[in-house]
Amino acid sequence: MALRLAISLLSAAAIAYQILLIRLFSIIQWHHYAYMVISLALLGYGASGTFLSLFRRPLQDRFPAAFLWNAVLFSILSILCFAAAQALPFNPLETIWDHRQLYYLALLYLLLAVPFFCVANCIGLVLTRFTKEIHRTYRADLVGAGCGAAALAGALFLLPPSRCLFAIGALGLLAAAIASLDRRLRQPRWTPTLLAAAALALALIPSNPWSNLRLSEYKGLNQALRVPETEILRQRSSPLGLLTVVRSARIPFRHAPGLSLNFTEELPDQLGLFTDGDGLTVINRFTGSWEHLAYLDYLLSALPYHLLETPRVVVVGAGGGTEVLSALYHGSSRIDVVEFNPQMIDLVGREFGGFSGGILSHPAVEVHLAEARGFLAAESRRFDLIQIALVDSLAASAAGVHALSESYLYTVEALESYIGHLADNGLLAITRWLKVPPRDSLKLFLTAIEALERMGVSEPERRLALVRSWSSVALLVKNSAFSDGDILRLQEFCRERSFDLAYYPGMTTAEANRYNLLEEPYLFAGARALLGGARDAYVAGYKFNLEIATDDRPYFFHFFKWRVLPEFLSLRERGGAGLIEWGYLLLVATLLQAVLAGLVLIVLPILIPQRGAPRGSLAARIGLYFFALGLAFIFIEIAFMQRFTLFLGHPLYAVAVVLASFLFFAGLGSGSAAAWHKLQGRWSGRGSTIDRTILGIGALALLYIGALPTLFEHWMDWNSSAKVLISLLLIAPIAFLMGMPFPFGLKQVAAVRPEWIPWAWGVNGWASVLSPVLATLIAIHFGFTAVVGLAVGFYLVAALAIRDVR
What average pLDDT does the chain have? Predict the structure, then answer.
């Protein structure tokens, strides 16, 4: 019992460490690099299988020492390896010109693999040593991991990430202390006391300079802090982001994206507000006088207010409050502010409420702690303006950092929802950074066309307008045709501010590209082509991927096309490197590295001459079974995380709820495997227990593919607690069944070749390494429905592979 509890604690620590690394690398780099590092770090599980296969006898002879030392080493190395990783001069954006970064990346994931290797050794040792308790051990592993995922999400609301790192390290020592209480380990009485005291000391150790997070030099916060007399006023951490408020006395912030170059007056005092060290927004000083806020009327996002009178406005994303201030400045009658991060609201509205003039407490303003689509799903009201301003940084956008980011803000279903909540003659306004050649802006324009056509609009070209400044682009979608008066006001607004018209109904080529000159009127030409009869040919021939994002494939920022890669590489010395979506290519490189490393790990035990090495057709079938299980389990898990992100409102909640639910209920399923087998034995009919279990998983997975979108739409307006409960109830049945095939398979291996158990464990671990990267690539190109469909296929392959293994 004590040993299984120790396994649960180690698994909880390992999954918490995995999620924490994602959070940490989101801060010091960007989050999609974190996913690659985590995937490769999980090579530790595959390496563990090889290690245990090669040294099975000496490790089993010294089982107590081997288990305890691996638990202690995880505790120490989880902290030291991250500190060493931070010391590496790794910067993924520099791969454009510095190939040494690929070596740093390899060293980085090898470092981070070591703690996972230690935990996997502990679990593998117990699975090999106590073969009659496989289902109980696996239950302890999964249930512990599920609890660890949920616990870390809660801990990140209470502790900064660096403190969580020490707490996770302490769990390793605590697990060793509990394991030493098990009589089978025959440890002295002082051992658990000493280990528990060490765990407490590690959890309470004060922060050290070497444990502080080192942000990428390309992140906005790092650059801002290089300016003399710049100071951090406040820092608030949660799983939703690390918020940092900064004041610069020497060179004050002058942040106004889309500001007309015709504006020559002073901007108000501003405080910088960074999210995860980037994504700058500002808090403007507001004293109640509008005299120093004239710049708000010279922003590109001010255009809708010149087409509407006293509108009812929805501002998506409070940020530092600039768009809320702009809505008040332009005389909006009511402003609904939708913000998902409560700490953002607290900082702007309370802590710096005196500086911001208390704009979030203004009588015309109502703040909603919600996600945009969930808020609209709960609303029966119609709005005159839905304003979605810039929510990311120019540097990150230009570098292709968001290429692997899922976003349900810009899918075609999202735009249908926004337009559907507009009043008669209402406007949807979305602002994006300007890229040349255009990417975001044209894909967004095409998405708006598709949304209008799906809603039955016969002439979408009469409802669209596109305007650009020197740095940004604004798309307007009207819930009726633009009138002649609208167009006159649109032209006047742009003429007074030297903004360029890119498209409006009836626009001519001569009106494009007048002020902020580009080599060609790219946006106007693109808009006309997308509205014309040759739309499909234009999209197919364009240098970048313009296919619209959907809820099933929400990768709006994926613009990469393989066929143009040679052309971009040939232009690298002339600046062409910036045109390449490096995030996508690094993901592909990660997959290739993982395949090669995994082949070495799995083939090695076969190549080295030793007694009982896995060979022959039986080894191939067993290896295929555990490999297919590893792919299938993670594929479904990842697809569900993405599906539930839209429903629960934020990726963090999806990861915490979905991952914890899958692991916890799969653990219960594993623990019930023996009873399930007996029950199945009484069931007359053909087919093994594994066959029936896998058929049940496949049937539920396919049912969910069709049912979840409809169910989510029906329940989208429910409160967060109800959504979490619904998620648990939906996930429990399929996760329960998914926990059974692995212990069933290990039982069969134990019956025919018990010495192959570590190798089977390693094969399954290797598949777990490949799954996140492979599933992401498939989702980018074919959608999450395809990911689930493939997972069902992998389960069927597993059932065929293990059949009649005796």
Answer: 86
